[in-house]
Amino acid sequence: QMKATVYLTYQQIQEDNLEAMLLDAQKLAYGHNIKADEIFEQPRVDTVNNVFGMLYIINGEAASQSQFYVTDSLKHFVSGALYFETKPNFDSIYPAVVYLRDDIRKIMETISWKE
């Protein structure tokens, strides 16, 4: 009903590519800086379940209003992005953005890794 999609990508960490994945995730988020009014970072650190990540909250007329990644820093890397199927009008979509950001936080909080 919100005409929005959260795109998820899973990548397996190989040898020394974690740094490149982290830089790519940051570049994708900050690539929206041209249209964004502001971008906030909310780190995720869960040492009990070995889940670390970042939620990028993008406010303004950007194409994506949220981007994130989570990783165990050893084998698994998941990134995601929220996009609406409409021209960005932040004031109009704001209630849906807030709702879906809560869903993204829930994904980040509940993700676990299987061996």
What can be said about this structure in brief?
The chain is an alpha+beta fold and 115 residues long. The chain has helices at residues 18-30, 90-110, and strands at residues 4-12, 36-46, 51-60, 64-71, 76-84. The chain has a five-stranded antiparallel β-sheet with strand order 1-5-4-3-2, with helices on both faces.
The number of helical runs is: 2
- Give the mean pLDDT: 93
Q: What is the percentage of strand-forming residues? A: 35-45%
Largest sheet: 5 strands, antiparallel
Counted beta strands? 5
Distance between the termini: 36 Å
> What is the element string, with H for helices and E for strands?
EHEEEEH
Strand arrangement, largest sheet? 1-5-4-3-2
Low-confidence segments, given as residue ranges, are none
Rough shape?
A: globular
Indicate the multimeric state: single chain
Helix residue percentage: 25-40%
Radius of gyration: 14 Å
Structural class: alpha+beta
